[in-house]
Amino acid sequence: MADYFFDLGQDDQREGLEYARARTGRPTHLLEKDLWVVWTLRALFDSPLSADLTFKGGTSLSKVYKIINRFSEDIDLTCDIRKLIPDLIGDGGDLPTSRSRADKWTKAIRHRLPDWIKTSVQPIIEASLAREQLDAKVELAGKENDKLLLQYPALAQGTGYVPPVVTLEFGGRATGEPRQVLPVVCDMDGLLPDVSFPTATPLVMSVARTFWEKATAAHVYCAQARIRGERYARHWHDLAAIARSPYFASVVTDHAVASAVARHKSCFFIEKDTEGAVINYLRATQGHLRIVPEGHPREALAEDYAAMLADDVMIGDALSFDQLMQACAEVAAQVNKAAPGRGAADGLEHRPSTAEA
Question: Which of helix, strand or coil describes residue 196?
Fold first, then answer.
């Protein structure tokens, strides 16, 4: 019977990590963090909370769909808005019908989400750690207390770009749909025949929805000309990777998901461009997507991309930044060409009315 990795002594764990590094060429600190990422997913999706959570973002593209060739270190999760504020939503659907109602929902979510994380999610992870006698700590974090940090005792170190912390970032303003249950295994799985590793079966957001969430985020960046924190360049890398994958053909034709993302962000993520005009998400999904920045924003993005590459988070040869921007320009051109009713949304802001429904 195979020995469970976390039951091994530290010397045997290090030996296993080094063996896997030699076999895969991946740095040991990334292989180690991957173990904790999958372990955390298993703890969550083997719990009573599983039906209310959706696993999404870059890590889902890497671990589930095998689309991206970079190590994605954090876990992005959506708590179903229908479970978080059922008293406010009622039977009226998962989007507010007015700007004032959107503000009311957002305020309630910001108040309830941290409490739900602290009282429902954190105890589940802590109980799993205690059950397996693992020496890791969990704490609430983030400006809005919408994150959990799982700090584990690292056996290996990198440059610091990828710290020995699994960040779980929660959102509560969407349903997470479309989604489906899919398997997740560790990168070391199968490399050591006498050792078993954590596995998980999370509910995973569709590639199409992930694409449009990232594409609209990149569109906002180009319109605002300012970067949103470190590691932002990963979105462009992921967009280009999705475009190279077999999933892209369905992404381009899934206009319903594109529209759903646009309408959702028009309600909950209203942003303005450099001239103070409200950014039109619907227009971006109907033939006017712009994801390649110019000038200083492009330089800032290039610096962030270089920092991402410096810690060996890429598997194999990575595109140069200029190549990445060219690939993204082609992505935008393909998506815009395939958009339905191109130009129909010109000049529209598409946001809830100011009148209370």
Answer: strand
pLDDT tens for the chain, residues 1 to 357:
789 999 999 999 999 999 999 998 888 988 999 999 999 999 999 999 999 999 999 899 999 999 987 666 789 999 999 999 999 997 778 899 999 999 999 999 999 999 999 999 999 999 999 999 999 999 999 999 999 999 999 987 765 657 889 999 999 999 999 999 999 999 999 999 999 999 999 999 999 999 999 999 999 999 998 766 666 888 999 999 999 999 999 999 999 999 999 999 999 999 999 999 999 999 999 999 999 999 999 999 999 888 878 765 565 567 899 999 999 999 999 999 999 866 444 443 444 433 333
Element (H, E) at 284: helix 281-285
Q: Which residues of 161-172 are buried (b: 16+ CB within 10 A; e: fewer)?
A: ebebbbbbbbbb
* H and E: helices and strands count for the chain: 14, 11
Hey, which residues does 151 pair with through a beta bridge?
Answer: 137, 165
Q: Which residues contact 9 (CB under 8 A, 6 or more apart)?
A: none
C-alpha–C-alpha distance, residues 149 and 153, integer Å:
13
Strand partners of residue 265 = none
Among 304, 332, 338, smallest CA distance to 215 is for 332
- Separation between Cα atoms, residue 55 and residue 24, nearest integer Å: 26
**φ, ψ at 194 (rounded to 5°):** -95, 10
> Does residue 138 sit in helix, strand or coil?
strand
* Burial zone of 329 (CB within 10 Å; 0-12 exposed, 13-18 middle, 19+ buried): middle
Q: Give percent helix, percent strand, percent coil of the chain, each to the nearest 5.
A: 50, 15, 35
Say what the pTM is.
Answer: 0.88
